[in-house]
């Protein structure tokens, strides 16, 4: 194992709460009960603000011409499927910073963002008062059938225990494509739920078996097209499941 991932894995395992103040992710475990009862709630303001603060410089860098791998993957995935007046709903929009990156690159897009956490939507509305944001759940999207040209999952499906229900909602609401951004995928392990601190927030996360999620998409009439490599996100040092992160375009 290289030195930096080893150090991060060590700090994450030995000092999960402390390291969660500086690491986006820490304290990985397959023992979901170890976080205590009712640990996994909607994201609180402190975690939302930490994520937001980390993302602002990344968006500025992307706009200045140096997108990180995940922003580059998002842009490359959207390029063939958006144009003038394309309606795009981002599910799990967080503080809305993807809207800035998307609208910078694709100014014709008509963007809406939805998130479960009111804390996130508050931040999004403060930053971008002229854009449309709503508090809601991916499990029952407050949008009509076939009402959005593109439904973008903004690294949110990996946090949804009822991910099949969310996928069915994406298939219902989309008129054109579904883009699943930042999917964590394993080849030979079953779909597995684990827990960690995300920006200090106890958080559930999934690593999907590639064939299972692809099969579920096909059942819903969503055919996998483009695959883009996202950030390096190998869970092997943390929970013993080798993984990659990808962005999928489905039609
Ligand atoms: C990792 S953040 C992603 C934020 C941003 N889209 C990005 O790409 O960085 C995941 C977001 O998904 C939201 N989320 C989790 N479960 C959700 C659900 N069932 N419905 C809607 N949003 C959800 C969380 O509140 C959180 O803001």
Structural class: alpha/beta
- Helical content class: 25-40%
The averaged pLDDT comes out at: 93
CATH architecture: 3-Layer(aba) Sandwich
* Hetero groups: S-adenosylmethionine
* Low-confidence runs of at least 5 consecutive residues: none
Strand tally is 10
Please, could you describe this protein's structure?
- It is a single chain.
- This protein is of the alpha/beta class and 251 residues long.
- The longest helix is centred in the N-terminal third of the chain and has 19 residues, at 45-63.
- Helix 3 (45-63) packs parallel to helix 5.
- It has one domain (3-250): Rossmann fold.
- The protein starts with a helix and ends with a strand.
- Helix content is 35%, strand content 27%.
- It has 9 helices and 10 strands.
- It binds S-adenosylmethionine.
- Residues 43, 91-94, 98, 115-117, 120, 137-139, 154-156, 159-160 line the site of S-adenosylmethionine (SAM).
- Residues 43, 91-94, 98, 115-117, 120, 137-139, 154-156, 159-160 line the site of S-adenosylmethionine.
Task: Give me some keywords for this one.
single chain, 251 residues, alpha/beta, Rossmann fold, ten-stranded mixed beta sheet, globular, binds S-adenosylmethionine
Explain the layout of strands and helices.
Elements: H1 3-14, H2 16-19, E1 25-29, H3 45-63, H4 69-78, E2 87-91, H5 97-105, E3 110-115, H6 118-127, E4 132-135, E5 148-154, H7 163-173, E6 174-186, E7 192-198, E8 201-209, H8 210-219, E9 224-229, H9 236-239, E10 244-250
Parallel strand pairs: 2-3, 2-5, 3-4, 5-6, 6-8
Antiparallel strand pairs: 1-7, 6-10, 7-8, 9-10
The site of S-adenosylmethionine (SAM) has 18 residues, from loops.
């Amino acid at each position: 194992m290289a030195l930096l991932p080893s150090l991060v894995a060590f700090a994450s395992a030995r000092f999960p709460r402390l390291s969660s103040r500086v690491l986006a992710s820490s304290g990985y475990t397959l023992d979901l009960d170890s976080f205590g009862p009712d640990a996994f709630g909607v994201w609180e303001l402190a975690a939302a603000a930490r994520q937001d603060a980390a993302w602002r410089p990344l968006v500025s860098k992307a706009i200045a011409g140096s997108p990180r791998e995940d922003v580059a993957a998002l842009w490359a995935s959207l390029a063939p499927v958006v144009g003038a007046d394309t309606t795009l709903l981002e599910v799990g929009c967080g503080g809305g910073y993807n809207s800035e990156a998307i609208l910078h690159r694709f100014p014709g897009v008509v963007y809406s963002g939805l998130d479960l956490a009111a804390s996130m939507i508050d931040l999004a509305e403060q930053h971008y008062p002229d854009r449309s944001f709503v508090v809601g759940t991916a499990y029952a999207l407050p949008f009509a059938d076939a009402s959005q040209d593109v439904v973008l999952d903004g690294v949110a499906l990996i946090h949804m225990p009822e991910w099949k229900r969310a996928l069915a909602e994406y298939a219902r609401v989309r008129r054109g494509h579904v883009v699943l951004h930042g999917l964590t995928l394993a080849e030979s392990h079953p779909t597995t739920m684990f827990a960690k601190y995300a920006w200090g927030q106890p958080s559930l996360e999934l690593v999907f078996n590639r064939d299972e999620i692809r099969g579920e998409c096909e059942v819903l009439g969503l055919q996998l097209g483009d695959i883009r490599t996202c950030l390096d996100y190998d869970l092997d040092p943390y929970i013993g499941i080798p993984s990659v992160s990808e962005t999928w375009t489905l039609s």
